[in-house]
């Protein structure tokens, strides 16, 4: 009578065991990586905004201070997206015919809001407060990255709970003098500059 | 394998249940050989003529299991509000059924593990399907903790997995312990069950005619050749697993009793719950083993392997655990009075004479009065029809025990302003009945495709395995 399993089954059985172990490990690693991947967090993804607003141009190029547009950041839980009025303060006179700015002019003419796409969109069960962070020494760049170098806005950080907790459990590493909150280029203390200096 | 030495007035020639070699009470009928045991058990699996009754049973059971699918689908679509749970009574059928099913599973582990440690030979005939019963009962039970949460899709938050929220389960909640208890229980039960079947799968592989069956059982038997070394390790592993399962069986239902006992509610906050729940689990579990064993031994003509003596022994275990349960009921009443806590006392009064008092008296009737009143008589314990009826009664009674504990403690507690009532909806019933269909379907599949009685363990009980055959005459003479 012929054998049910031929010799190759030995190799297959062993390979099967190893493979099962590998699959389990791979699945674990994959799932762990997946939840932090930009695919889930949308880090670095440039949303398709109605107007390709450039922070780099307005901040680095023109030297606007953050609060010029995001007026309520130190008074409210919500930093605010500037209304069309803020855009029109300048763009009523500058680049008045630019095609890029057409939605802004339409909005101004019709009174319809521009439908900006939120890049930092926390779930509504999170009650994030901008004011407390800004007033207690967390700079814009700590959470939002070098926005002054972003031609199109994207999320620098994950905004996941572990990211919030990492700072809340040890805030000191991210604190800065309140005079430096809006200084995008502020660097923390280093070997050569061991203490905070007002004139970085 | 003895359960009792030969009594002097018994003559082996007269009583066929007395082993003529050892002079011990045999637990399986005489006349079997290695070959006949293999033939008898493997024929059920390897037959090319599946009995029509099996098909009929599977169609009915899977039809009922479809109700389960419907109930779960509707539950996920609409939410737990389709059930009869309310704000004072936020636990209802789901938890009752969960505890009931888990309890049923426990007898399987008791038979396969605890009775192995006590070297009870009579367990051999029933342990395989008792283990299968455990696994399928845990399958049914395990779904309730997931289904009864409002957001079942977040059930994995109960597992201690690294995650981006930096949040872990609360390890102080007995409901979190449930997760570990039930998942460990399920895993160990499956492993124990499977290891036990490996030699039998080997037999099936060798007996099978169809190439596919040969291949399938060959894969399942993992190259079992039955060498001495295999058997040594097999026995050691079985014993170790039995030793591991024994504390497991006691702790799993203890953990489930903690779901209640840890709470501050009168009627729940009782230190007697852990042992009393375990006793109840074994009580109901043995009832379920009987409910399954009696029709199966009849349908497959296994009366010579699952003998009346087995049924008698199981009934005795039921009597023993039933008495512990009765003690539990008595202590609950006594402590309600002795505590001098008027909430406790009211809880007991409400349990007996409140709007759902009928549940309590049904429980007393079904769990205490009928079984404990009758199981003392050997005549009734060996009456198969009566035992079957009784096993169903006890299953119902033990369901009512959980109903009484869960519901009557919840719907009237400390604040009269938060008293309510509990009335199950059709979806509660549908889900419960559906799990019975699922359980039966799985069990029927098991009976058809796996050896329902461990051939290797039965063979070890045959007289031919006894080495001291030479002394047989002496033994008989001594005791005669």
From TrEMBL, chain B:
Its main location: membrane. It is a multi-pass membrane protein. It comes from the Bacteria. The keyword Transmembrane helix applies. Keywords: Cell membrane, Membrane, Transmembrane, Transmembrane helix. The chain crosses the membrane at residues 52-77, 89-118, 130-154, 174-195, 239-264, 276-296, 317-338, 358-377, 384-409, 429-450. It is found in: Cell membrane. One of its GO terms (cellular component) is plasma membrane. The keyword Membrane applies. InterPro entries: NrfD-like. Belongs to the NrfD family. This is Polysulphide reductase NrfD. It comes from Terriglobus saanensis (strain ATCC BAA-1853 / DSM 23119 / SP1PR4).
């Amino acid at each position: 009578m012929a054998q049910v399993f031929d010799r190759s089954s030995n190799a297959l059985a062993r390979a099967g065991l190893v493979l099962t172990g590998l699959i389990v490990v791979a699945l674990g690693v994959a799932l762990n990586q997946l939840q932090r991947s930009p695919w889930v967090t949308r880090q670095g993804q440039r949303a398709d905004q109605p107007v390709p607003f450039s922070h780099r141009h307005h901040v680095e190029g023109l030297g606007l201070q953050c609060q010029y547009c995001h007026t309520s950041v130190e008074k409210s839980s919500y930093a605010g997206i500037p209304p069309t009025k803020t855009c029109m303060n300048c763009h009523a006179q500058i680049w008045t015919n630019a095609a890029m700015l057409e939605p802004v002019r339409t909005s101004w003419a019709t009174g319809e809001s521009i439908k900006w796409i939120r890049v930092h969109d926390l779930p509504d069960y999170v009650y994030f407060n901008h004011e407390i962070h800004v007033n207690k020494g967390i700079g814009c760049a700590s959470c939002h990255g070098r926005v002054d170098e972003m031609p199109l806005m994207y999320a620098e950080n994950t905004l996941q709970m572990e990211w919030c907790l990492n700072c809340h459990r040890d805030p000191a590493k991210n604190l800065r003098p309140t005079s430096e909150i809006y200084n995008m280029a502020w660097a923390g203390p280093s070997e050569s500059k061991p203490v905070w200096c007002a004139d970085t | 394998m003895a359960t009792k030495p030969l009594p002097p007035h018994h003559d082996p020639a007269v009583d066929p249940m007395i082993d003529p070699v050892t002079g011990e009470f045999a637990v399986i009928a005489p006349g079997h050989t290695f070959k006949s045991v293999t033939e008898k058990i493997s024929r059920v699996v390897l037959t090319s003529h599946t009995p029509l009754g099996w098909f009929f049973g599977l169609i009915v059971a899977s039809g009922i299991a479809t109700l389960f699918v419907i109930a779960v689908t509707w539950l996920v679509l609409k939410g737990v509000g389709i059930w009869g749970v309310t704000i004072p009574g936020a636990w209802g059928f789901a938890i009752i059924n969960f505890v009931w099913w888990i309890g049923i599973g426990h007898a399987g582990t008791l038979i396969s593990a605890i009775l192995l440690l006590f070297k009870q030979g009579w367990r051999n005939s029933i342990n395989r399907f008792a283990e299968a019963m455990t696994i399928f009962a845990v399958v049914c039970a395990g779904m309730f903790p997931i289904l009864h949460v409002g957001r079942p899709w977040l059930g994995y938050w109960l597992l201690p997995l690294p995650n981006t929220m930096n949040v872990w389960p609360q390890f102080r909640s007995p409901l979190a312990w449930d997760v570990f208890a039930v998942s460990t229980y399920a895993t160990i039960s499956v492993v124990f069950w499977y290891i036990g079947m490996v030699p039998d799968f080997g037999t099936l592989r060798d007996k099978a005619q169809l190439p596919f069956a040969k291949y399938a059982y060959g894969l399942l038997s993992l190259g079992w050749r039955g060498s001495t070394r295999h058997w040594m390790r097999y026995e050691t592993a079985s014993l170790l697993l039995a030793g591991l399962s024994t504390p497991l069986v006691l702790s799993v239902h203890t953990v489930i009793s903690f779901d209640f006992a840890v709470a501050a509610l009168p009627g729940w906050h009782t230190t007697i719950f852990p042992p009393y729940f375990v006793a109840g689990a074994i009580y109901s579990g043995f009832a379920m083993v009987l409910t399954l064993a009696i029709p199966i031994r009849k349908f497959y003509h296994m009366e010579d392997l699952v003998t009346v003596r087995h049924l008698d022994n199981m009934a005795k275990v039921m009597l023993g655990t039933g008495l512990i349960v009765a003690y539990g009921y008595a202590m609950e009443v006594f402590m309600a009075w002795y505590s001098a806590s008027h909430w406790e006392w009211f809880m007991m009064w409400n349990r007996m004479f409140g709007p759902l008092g009928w549940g309590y008296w049904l429980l007393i009737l079904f769990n205490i009065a009928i079984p404990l009143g009758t199981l003392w008589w050997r005549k009734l314990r060996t009456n198969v029809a009566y035992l079957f009826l009784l096993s169903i009664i006890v299953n119902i009674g033990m369901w009512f025990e959980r109903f009484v504990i869960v519901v009557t403690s919840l719907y009237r507690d400390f604040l009269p302003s938060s008293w309510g009532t509990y009335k199950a909806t059709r979806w509660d019933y549908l889900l419960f009945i559906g799990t019975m269909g699922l359980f039966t379907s799985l069990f029927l599949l098991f009976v058809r495709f796996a050896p329902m009685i461990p051939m290797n363990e039965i063979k070890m009980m045959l007289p031919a395995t006894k080495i001291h055959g030479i002394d047989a005459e002496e033994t008989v003479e001594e005791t005669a």
